[in-house]
Design a protein that fits this description.
heterodimer; A: 233 residues; alpha+beta; 5-stranded mixed sheet; 5 strands; 11% strand; B: 555 residues; alpha/beta; Flavocytochrome C3, Chain A, domain 1; FAD/NAD(P)-binding domain; 2 domains; 8-stranded mixed sheet; 5-stranded antiparallel sheet; 16 helices; 17% strand; globular
């Protein structure tokens, strides 16, 4: 069973909560994030921290709360501790990534079938959506993947952090985040409308349109450059 | 939710909003931009770089006697983690064409172009692939793709932002490759924000004379980084990824060429030697050194390791006296103190205002000028707002964006920011954010040329670890462009170099020699570097850790 960490100057109860880090009790400041609490307790994190701001998905955490049967999921860097929280960080998520040649991969349902056939095992239980710390409609994008609607997968999975909590909870053993990533790349490369501005600029560059202007700028003295800069419209 | 006592100030911000909205709709700037003299004045008086003790002389190595940021000089004047005598370099554990040190955006871009040129690549990275500042950039990437814009104009903007200290050839490479990089990334599958006809969406950033900030909502870095990572992972036969395996020293050969590195397995605590015909440093910056005690927007591993090992091996550094503080780091709530609030908020029309709801600076000055004026507002003018924890900040009025761009704009274009604050019951479509400058970027770094070569043959550097591209102050959106432009270049030129490179006998003599130099100069320090990971263990816990040792570095 969990044992409580005793310190000489037991902190005031009102500003602190007791959390169980992998089963071991620590008193930590009530408003700390899970990551802050782990470090407050004295751990030097190696796995389980990356950007620390909710972008990289390195700090997937599962926890339970007292008197509640549910398994909760969250990012350690943005989830606030609660009294009695029993938590464990997931050091890594085993998830299959399909290998493919982006130049030879078509943006359609056959690609999904070929690279991630398990998508079609989805039973629409919505557990993935409930597990998502970004509140994305994960199940909806898996359904869209089944229909070959690459654009919808891109749109719905855009803010995905690849933390893997959906995949670890999925009874159909789908690796949702990799399906999302594949569709985003397919959309960006094949389906997103082409920019005429960009094509025009690239043609100009090919014809060395700006070479003379650059030559002049490279020769210019600092004072001249300053004048040019402060006179830019 | 904001504490009750802030209501008075929040109401003032609300009260002035209509007036400021009218101002923003007019063609004129909402606040007069500063002249060159005014910029200089506010920088000299309020930028943290100019404070007493902010800089000191470094006493060893290739830049000895130069003035550097104090914390940087400290970390450079440190002991190696390794004892060279313990390594048998005649039998390297791993051999490869190219060793890439650092698994962020620059490292992945370099690995991809090197692989495409036929090289065998190993990526050594201290955390997971993609655990890097590249993942965190929200606002965008600059590239001149519009008719009213041009690469030379982009060049001038970057130069002005950098106070004309930029290395011209590097800034030229940066701005000239811009459009090509947009295309390259799109062909790899990056989803740029566009309108229905495919026209790329562009916004202003601080110090841009034309709108040229391209974006992927406010997950720009995350989308680009994950695309590059996925591409790297699609080629396991040519690129091997070594995670939780940071490089801690470079290996040289007897002729003074770079020949690989010593890697450290964070979990098993073993060291491995890698012999490589060329080595590319893409280790990023040093935000986790918490210079002058500032919070940082940087990722967990941003401890400047590349600087340390390159410096010991004899690489020249430049502009190590200059640190970038991002104007808008979060200060409330406490849990997200220091977190980045994208400059794109100001690009879309968000305004910085003081406790009375009044504008006090043009919202898009170059970052150092903007930051300094925030500090002035909070200190000399005492117009900041204090948090319950004793921090101070000014308001960044985001609801104005919805008035200017239409309802729903924030949810669509700033999902990350909205999410960050709604967790704490602050709805940024209705209430402003409280901000103060946060340690953001290492302006200086290892000196390179436009082929990413250093003064050491066989050693290449790209991205934030390099210096000179941005002078002494980088503009928003130029770092994302930087790691792509120079990452690509490093991979290409390094794989060209290896075709004729012949390595001699491997050596770690430079490590012992550096150690001797420290001793000769009478430098007494317990510090060991590279730091690898910062320590956030509370002091009372550290006191009880009798058998753990953290002397400025991970065990």
């Amino acid at each position: 069973m969990a044992t409580k960490k005793k310190t000489k100057n037991q902190p005031k109860k009102k500003d602190f909560v007791t959390v169980y880090i992998m089963g071991k009790a620590y008193d930590v400041p009530a408003k700390s994030t899970i990551m802050g609490a782990i470090e407050y307790a004295g751990y030097q994190i190696k796995r389980g921290a990356g950007c620390r701001e909710g972008f990289c998905g390195a700090c997937a955490t599962v926890y339970r709360l007292p008197g509640d049967y549910k398994i909760y999921t969250g990012l350690a860097c943005t989830t606030i501790v609660e009294e009695g929280m029993w938590l464990a960080q997931l050091p890594a998520i085993p998830g299959e990534k399909a290998l493919y040649d982006i130049d030879k991969t078509k943006p359609d349902v056959n690609t999904i079938q070929r690279l991630y056939p398990e998508v079609f095992r989805c039973v629409a239980c919505n557990t993935c959506t409930k597990a998502c710390p970004q509140d994305l409609e994960v199940m909806d994008y898996i359904q869209a993947a089944k229909r070959g609607d690459i654009e919808a997968v891109m749109d719905l999975s855009f803010d995905c952090l690849c933390c893997g909590l959906c995949a670890i909870r999925c009874p159909a053993e789908i690796v949702q985040y990799n399906v999302g990533l594949l569709c985003k790349r397919l959309y960006g490369k094949y389906l997103s409308p082409k920019s005429k501005d960009l094509e025009k600029r690239l043609k100009e560059m090919k014809k060395n349109k700006y070479d003379d202007e650059f030559k002049e700028l490279m020769k210019a003295k600092k004072e001249e450059l300053k004048k040019k800069y402060y006179n830019l419209d | 939710m904001y504490p009750e006592y802030m209501r008075v100030s929040l109401n003032k911000v609300k009260k002035t909003r209509n007036k400021r909205f009218e101002l923003a709709k007019s063609d004129k700037p909402v606040f007069p931009p500063m002249s060159a003299e005014e910029r200089e004045q506010v920088l000299n008086k309020f930028h943290p770089d100019y404070k007493k003790d902010a800089r000191r002389k470094i006493n060893v190595g290739p830049n000895k006697k130069e003035i550097m940021t104090t914390e940087v000089a400290d970390v450079l004047e440190s002991h190696s983690r390794i004892d060279p005598k313990k390594f048998d370099l005649s039998k390297p554990d791993i051999e490869t064409d190219v060793l890439v040190i650092g698994g962020g955006g620059g490292g992945c871009a370099a690995a991809i172009t090197a692989m495409q040129s036929g090289a065998d690549v190993k990526i050594s990275t201290k955390l997971r692939l993609g655990d890097a500042n590249s993942m965190m950039s929200q606002g965008g990437m600059q590239a001149s793709v519009k008719e009213d814009d041009s690469p030379p104009r982009h060049y001038l903007d970057a130069l002005g932002g950098g106070h004309f200290d930029n290395k011209p050839k590097l800034t030229k490479a940066l701005t000239q490759d811009g459009p090509e990089v947009v295309k390259w990334l799109e062909e790899l599958g990056v989803c740029w924000d566009k309108d229905e006809e495919g026209s790329l969406q562009v916004l202003h950033g601080g110090g841009t004379s034309r709108k040229r900030m391209l974006s992927c909502r406010d997950y720009t870095g995350a989308i680009i980084m994950r695309t590059l990572m996925d591409e790297v992972r699609n080629h396991p036969d040519q690129i091997e990824i070594l995670e939780f395996m940071p490089t801690v020293e470079l290996i040289m050969d007897e002729k003074g060429h770079c020949a690989g590195g010593v890697l450290y397995n964070l979990e098993t605590e073993e060291y491995f030697t890698v012999k490589a015909k060329a080595t590319i440093i893409t280790t990023g910056g040093y935000g986790r050194l918490h210079i002058r005690g500032f919070d940082t927007t940087n990722h967990y591993g941003a401890t400047g390791d590349g600087l340390v090992m390159a410096y010991r091996a004899g690489a020249k550094l430049m502009y190590m006296d200059s640190v970038q503080y991002h104007p808008t780091g979060s200060v409330f709530p406490e849990q997200i103190a220091g977190f980045l609030i994208t400059e794109k908020i100001r690009g879309a029309g968000g305004q910085p205002v003081n406790k009375d709801g009044e504008l006090f600076v043009f919202p898009r000055e170059p970052r150092d000028v903007e930051s300094s004026s925030f500090i002035r507002e909070c200190t000399e003018r005492n117009n900041g707002i204090k948090t319950p924890q004793g921090r101070v900040g000014i308001w960044l009025d985001s609801p104005l964006i919805e008035m200017l761009q239409g309802e729903g704009y924030i949810n669509k274009n700033f999902p990350a920011m909205h999410r960050q604050f709604i967790r704490y019951d602050i709805d940024i479509t209705k209430e402003p954010m409280l901000v103060f400058p946060s340690l953001h970027y290492q302006n200086g770094g290892i000196e390179i040329n436009d082929k990413c070569e250093t003064n050491i043959p066989g050693l290449y550097v790209a991205g934030e670890a390099s210096g000179g591209v941005h002078g002494r102050n980088r503009l928003m959106g130029n770092s994302v462009l930087d790691y792509n432009v120079f990452g690509r270049r490093a991979g290409i030129y390094a794989s060209e170099y290896i075709k004729s490179a012949k390595l001699g006998k491997l050596s770690l003599k430079h490590v012992s020699e550096y150690e001797k130099e420290l001793k000769d100069k009478g430098i007494k320090t317990e510090r060991v570097a590279p730091i690898i990971l910062p320590s956030y263990t509370p002091e009372d816990v550290k006191k009880r850790q009798f058998t753990a040792h953290y002397e400025g570095t991970l065990r």
